[in-house]
Design goal:
The structure is a homotetramer of 316-residue chains. Chain A has helices spanning 6-9, 25-31, 37-54, 67-70, 73-81, 92-102, 116-121, 136-148, 158-167, 175-181, 195-204, 216-226, 238-250, 276-282, 298-315; strands spanning 59-63, 87-90, 108-109, 124-127, 130-133, 155-157, 186-187, 210-212, 231-235, 255-262, 285-295. By secondary structure, chain A is α/β, with parallel strands linked by helices. In chain A, strand 9 (231-235), helix 13 and strand 10 (255-262) form a beta-alpha-beta unit. The radius of gyration of chain A is 21 Å and the shape is globular. At the A-B interface, helix 2, helix 3, helix 5, strand 3 and strand 5 of A face helix 2, helix 3, helix 5, strand 3 and strand 5 of B.
Chain lengths: 316, 316, 316, 316
């Protein structure tokens, strides 16, 4: 916590946002740059993300929440393709839905106020207002069986499993495929907590599959050791946030940039909603890091953040 | 709740958002139009707001929360000036801060993690990450005294008080002034719950001031009676949301359009977070109304909504 | 913000809660007294509330949210009857539902996941998981007409209107009746924002009714001037929270005790979720006040707080 | 979604809670049984949990969030000891803090509004309002080294690692020890996402440690297959919630009882806040299951739930 003089505290007048037709996303972010609350924080996030991506920071991306089913897959895939993500840490569920999409199968826009028994009878699984036909998991099982059968009996890490999945996906918009092509590691610590885990279990009933729970740690910690001005963009909290932070912590480096886009708040005491200041007490985020948390729906703030940062990077 | 066949449920595939540099806000909204969660809902809100504003709907605007200190004043002022708000219902606090801004005094961008005792010693009042110098209230008092002294002893309504305030403001960006100029009524049911109320109390110590608590109701209910395809955009909940809804209810009309931009959720049982479906059980919102709630920071979603809707209206 | 030495920071070990059968509520609060997060804060709230009620503090009670429909009416009524509330500030809606209950009419436990169109066809109004038969408002109208007709044409304050309502209620569990009997003032700044307001409007169509919007302020500010170690228990935020705080502010006194039971969080920037530290920057809450916010459902925390504080007060 | 006649909808009047001194926790739960919002839901949760524990249900317990640092460790340990938990699924972090406590080291009650840089300089790590001295992790490392060194080079599952940890803990209040003694399996899918993972990594630098990421799945799915009227109590969401639900799903059984104590709400679309109705669309929770979500701080609701259910079970 910095202490400022009274004069320093009153240096930046709120500038009332002027919103006009046909403005670009970056214009809009500049228009809310002088505002407070979430608007001002989102504008800060754009500044920080632009500096982080433009300055050669080693860039970590934490992807929790059901972001792929919600429509954020292409944004993540494009960020990897364009070199803006060096390390992706995500959840098993996002990777399941990413594989489903890569098979040409779709998620559907549904309704969050509905009759779930009726959905069950229709064999439709619901994720808030997203519908997914249950029979898709039969296709998914076939796909997974085929991919897993090409893994030998040697022990591999979860990251190697993710790379193997990516190498066996034929879809140019696939997060996993692009990551594999670009040599961007994808970590997924709780992989067994997903339909991928279930398929692995089914597969292991009859054939060997040896995935070491701890084998990734050396690799990600090495990346942290060698990271340059590391920065983290965290979508939601969960395992990705903690795993990114603890890996940096153990490497005795600290994040110099940190952005959280989340609806979680600190009051529950859980890590997902914990402030980035709390992370400073641990040495996960440096004392002088540029950091901001935007408490707002990430399916809204992520597209704005990326659109504005890309616009600025294009001018550099 | 509508019931659809399985085929109808699976008609709209999620379209993964494609975000590119230099895109316009409206392009961005189109890009997230096929997404789910808050993104899809915000895109729906833009559709609904455009139809509502473009189709001659009687347009109600509920403004709760500290939106003026946060930088949303100009957006509201411009919407009134351009004929997009027919009725404004707001809180006393927003009107206090609107008057402060109209005097050329500023709010300042501060910090939400700070030492409030230090702020108190610096005579700075805090509103989340907004700072307001306490001495401004001395200027505000002078301004209010001057304005109130021109009101006679006849009984007036709160709306008439708001119009009187607007007529005595000399700032072309003032919500109250523009509303007064455009004959847009501003209702502020809990006006005494604000610094305006405190000034009114001080003034009443020595001179007559008669503001009738119930005098507004006939007027707003008459507007509701005569409303054409009424629509409501509600920023936050609070008194503005309820007052707009109950006025429409008593007029035996119903809202045909309703948009909520709020972080409040239904689980507390309070009206602020209540769903728009709940409002249907009361007959506040019609069975067939187009409605959506976007659970996200309104200082982010309001600028996007307005920028995109204005872009579309300009093309009509 | 206090600064402590490292030793001071590590003085109070977390005591793991031991929960056993047949324990009393006060035992449970003692059991969670050494816990963190909401549990520790609730235990603090019990300490503060007991000291506040036991020590002769002038006791303000802010009641927002739909607490009467949810079943919290008796708790408030009993606190008034037993002398634990000196000033009640509440919403019009709570007073409407209080009058409905006083007429022997009931609210009903319903379901929050329901078909609101079906409810509308059944003439049932929904408040989250509470159902209220719409025809009750016909009875309510008759009751209000009868009560209002006994008010003359002189100008009265909203508080006087509340007292008049209380004097005309025949139900020994009525908040308004007990408050009137005990000379406890009930303030309801946004009274027109409720069915009481609508009835007042209907009544004013044919007969005089003059309620001054600002007439209460002198009275509540005088109470604040004369208050002794004032304390506030705030259920939810909204108008009651602000009105209580601004009245104390203008009196140049400060609250020495402040407890918030709310689900609102600070991130939206609105007053409802604002921290009590923020209130210190304004001088609403004193630098040395004992204060705590419990972020948890108030229909759970209020009963616990009252049960535990009453148990302790009984032993004093 | 059930459809009821109008008469059925209006069968259960809200009963206003009567709160008196010296009442027991179970009395309090009975007092709020007729209330709505969180109060009514908590009372439902007590009914469901009592039936679930009293009727021989196979009982799953999901423990997310920083519940052990906050003081909920003893409650969980006692539930296992008394046979009320058949399967525990938790996070690595909770198990780290459980081991720290088992070593006689303490967490400390701190402050959530503090100077995190000062804390860092004091070598204190913060978890909301809990402080943990950083040097404790040196002791933790020694302890882990000693325990891990007794594991051979054969491949084990994460559950076996947890059992091994429990067998090497000497503290009669330890969750892990009691679970090991009682043959209650502890699953911790994201174990590498914790300080245990970091210690495992350090250990693996020099010695073999083979923990199979997928080896647990057969075991937990077998438990699900054989479960009798399975029930789940979920504290927070996260990996524990999903892992419990997906294991039951794959076994083609469904939960007949499900209770969530959480502050997460559905609007973000993430699994943590997803409704139990959503789980019905997947077949994770049965159509006819008794289920309830209490949106309130779990450090408050868990002690009440357990105190009241234990009181009722003691009378059976």
């Amino acid at each position: 916590m910095e202490h400022h003089s009274k004069e320093e505290k009153l240096q930046n007048p709120i500038r009332q946002a002027k919103i006009i037709e046909n403005m670009s996303v970056d214009d809009l972010v500049h228009a809310i740059d002088g505002c407070a609350f979430g608007a001002g924080k989102l504008a800060d996030a754009v500044d920080i993300y632009t500096e982080m991506l433009g300055g050669g920071s080693t860039s970590f991306f934490g992807l929790a929440g059901a972001m792929v089913p919600a429509g954020m897959r292409q944004i993540v895939a494009d960020l990897i393709r364009d070199g803006y993500i060096d390390v992706l840490v995500t959840t098993g569920a996002n990777m399941v839905h990413e594989i489903v999409e890569s098979m040409g199968l779709h998620h559907y826009k549904g309704c969050c106020e509905c009759d779930d028994i009726e959905l069950k009878n229709d064999e439709i699984n619901r994720i808030y207002d997203v519908y997914l036909p249950e029979p898709y998991f039969v296709d998914f099982e076939e796909k997974m069986k085929a991919i897993l059968s090409e893994i030998g009996s040697e022990t591999i890490s979860i990251r190697e499993l993710m790379t193997h999945l990516g190498n066996n996906i034929d879809d140019r918009n696939s997060i996993l495929k692009i990551a594999a092509d670009m040599n961007v590691p994808v970590y997924c610590p709780a992989i067994q907590d997903s339909m991928i885990g279930l398929q692995a279990w089914l597969y292991k009933q009859t054939r060997p599959l040896n995935v070491d729970a701890f084998a990734d740690m050396r690799e990600i910690i090495d990346i942290c050791y060698q990271a340059k001005n590391p920065g983290a963009l965290l979508i939601g909290g969960g395992v990705p946030k903690n795993y990114i932070f603890q890996s940096m912590l153990i490497s005795h480096q600290e994040f110099e940039y940190a952005i959280q886009l989340t609806m979680d708040t600190p009051e529950t005491g859980g890590l997902s909603g914990a402030t980035l200041d709390e992370a400073r007490s641990w040495g996960k985020v440096s004392e002088t890091a540029r950091s901001v948390t935007v408490h707002s729906d990430a399916t809204i703030t992520l597209p704005i953040l990326v659109a504005a940062a890309r616009s600025r990077l294009a001018k550099m």
